[in-house]
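Tip: read the tokens left to right.
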């Protein structure tokens, strides 16, 4: 089986060269050749169903690195809900077309589950500490062990100098930094601003499961985060939290709030009183029908 292919497409008088690999050894060989030429490598890990948010991460990686690898792999070990895994959008052909249209020189890694996990699809266990016990860790049992497992393996295979993650998954961003500390892998983790739809909804691959009317209604999530930011410091955290929770209950019937939290930005510990010398963020998870959406905002 031919695992490495080179896709050549002439678009608007530009030659787009994308290298697409499924085989771990093939992409490792390619990266090592790049590094022998004293070039830096950036990694953008994704689960596909690409959108403008992913493209913004790639552009950021291109600003910081000589060459960029984007991985496309729906990782089974980070799903605690079998239905969510089954319904997660898989659009590999469209993803590659989108990359061809927007970039001239990328390395794409699209491994199979067997290539990553062999015959044993299980998570490793990591001691992420309190970071993994809040919010997503509380509501998605085993999620961060799955995230840590796939990223540890991707970092081993690609050996990037830098890896780029969106702040929409802010808790995950902190977890990944902790992962690198635990594994002592030599990769710098860079967080990038949240990419949003025109109505403020955080861009997500799961948005593809929503129609236009639902996307409009889901913008309520961002509106409530802006409301929390506007009221930050005028109430104590518990009262502000209660106000936001009531806003979900009273002002719309489309979204089902799973949690709203106000936490310290570095530790994610939920707080009840504000300290002017501490950075805080507000976090939301809500269901739009059976589509789970998350978002967050810096409060100060």
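Filled-in amino acids:
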């Amino acid at each position: 089986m031919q695992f490495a292919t080179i896709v050549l497409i002439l678009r608007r008088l530009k030659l787009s060269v994308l290298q697409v690999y499924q085989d771990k050894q093939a992409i490792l060989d390619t990266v090592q050749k790049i590094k022998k030429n004293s070039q830096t490598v950036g990694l953008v890990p994704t689960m596909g169903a690409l959108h403008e948010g992913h493209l913004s991460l790639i552009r950021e990686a291109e600003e910081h690195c000589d060459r960029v690898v984007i991985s496309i792999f729906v990782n089974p070990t980070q799903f605690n809900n079998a239905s969510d895994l089954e319904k997660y959008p898989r659009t590999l052909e469209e993803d590659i077309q989108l990359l061809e249209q927007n970039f001239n020189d990328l390395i794409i890694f699209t491994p199979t589950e067997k290539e990553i996990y062999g015959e044993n699809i299980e998570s490793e266990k990591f001691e992420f500490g309190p970071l993994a016990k809040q919010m997503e860790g509380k509501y998605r049992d085993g999620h961060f062990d799955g995230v840590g497992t796939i990223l540890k393996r991707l970092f081993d295979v690609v050996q990037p100098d830098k890896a780029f993650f969106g702040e929409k998954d802010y808790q995950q961003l902190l977890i990944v930094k902790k992962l690198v500390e635990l594994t002592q892998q030599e990769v710098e983790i860079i967080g990038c601003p949240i990419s949003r739809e025109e109505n403020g909804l955080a861009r997500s691959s799961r948005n593809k499961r929503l129609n236009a009317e639902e996307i409009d209604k889901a913008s309520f999530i961002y509106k409530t985060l802006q409301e929390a930011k506007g009221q930050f410091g005028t109430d104590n955290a518990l009262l502000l939290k209660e106000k936001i929770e009531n806003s979900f209950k009273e002002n719309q019937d489309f979204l089902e709030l799973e949690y709203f939290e106000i936490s310290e930005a570095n530790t994610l510990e939920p707080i009840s009183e504000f300290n002017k010398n501490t950075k805080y963020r507000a976090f939301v998870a809500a269901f739009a029908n059976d589509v789970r959406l998350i978002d967050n905002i810096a409060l100060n």
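Strands lie at 4-11, 14-21, 41-46, 67-72, 105-109, 162-166, 188-192, 255-264, 280-288, 291-298. The longest helix spans residues 143-158.
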